[in-house]
Specification:
Largest sheet: 8 strands, mixed
Distance between the termini: 25 Å
Number of strands: 8
Order of helices and strands: EHEHEHEHEHEHHEHHHE
Shape: elongated
Number of helices: 10
Structural class: alpha/beta
Radius of gyration: 25 Å
Strand content: 5-15%
Oligomer: single chain
Length: 319
Amino acid sequence: MIKRLAIVVPCYNEEEALVDTNAVLNDYLKSLIKKKLVKADSFILYVNDGSKDRTWEVISEAHKQSKYVYGLNLAGNKGHQNALLAGLMQVKDEVDMTVSIDADLQDDVNAIEEMIKKYYEGCDIVYGVRNDRTSDSFFKKFTAESFYKIMNWLGTKTVYNSADFRLMSNRALDELSLYSEQHLFLRGIATELGFKTDCVYYKRNPRLKGESKYPLKKMMAFAFDGVTSFSDKPLTLIMVMGFLAIFFSFLAVIYSVIRHFTGHTIQGWTSLFVSIWFLGGVQLVSLGIIGKYVGKTFIETKKRPRYYVESYLNHDKKK
């Protein structure tokens, strides 16, 4: 039996790229319908994450011109993960499966067909995995690959080289809706759901137009949120650093005693200066990490809404 698909596309200041992106996705969705892989009432949902440019106007115009284009406008900028979640939650009761993809289309849309086939074979989650990043600069490739390795080392389970390009069934989305935390890390949550999964491999494309919305600073903050949302390993590392500092201080005492009795006492404040600054730095970093955990706990206890929907454009008669 053919199922209904929604392609969810979070957008932030994507005015420059969205016209081309919409043309590609519209043509591709039509081809999926023609192949009878998805229902004829399948659609593309663009989620405007409080863009400062004309992104919402472009989405509204595309909605008027195509029956396959839906639009969700959030009240204010809530961040990529919240925008993506808003789109998924909006359609979870309307479709049988969703595919999330970024508006820059660096993820290969042609992989969607294979994702859908794996869904029909019984998979509830299908990850798009980049197996070729030759279009990336050395710095981008190095930082991205380091991101996944560090995340896994720190205890946050992710699929290597997989971002937010994935297929999720309606059943998987129902379980995802049970997660209520404010600091979302969907790449980690998806691996926790426990349903049957598979991967589709593809070559990463150059960005169509516009600039990346994930510079190094944002990527580092995203990684830290991911780690602190899923793992307490940084707290364990703090404890290990504390024990190491104590161990080396004992070694320093022993060394000083030996030097004293052999008549080679070194005058000066260098060792004292270095040790004070080293331990002071360890303490400040430790307090900072602990503070982040406490701060996240404070935010979570408030249970505030993660986003607000300002308007929803659709073509469903019942809506």
